[in-house]
Amino acid sequence: MESAPIDDASIQARIEATISADPILSKMDVSTLVESGKVTIVGSVRSAELKQRVERMIRQIKGVTTIDNQLVVNESTP
Question: Which fold, 8-73?
Fold first, then answer.
């Protein structure tokens, strides 16, 4: 018996829960848009490492087929 495909709203809810559970990412300006399993990530983070971290976290969520990572890295200058 095949399981039903996961709908975009469920994927979106899981992404938001994953990001908000992360103490660093929850403070960042990160938004996602899910369309037919394709996730577009927008916003800004402080480092390239954080940009990759967001993508890795989202890639692990069931139902995500592709990721378009449009996060901008805003390295703060002292």
Answer: Histidine-containing Protein; Chain: A; (3.30.1340)
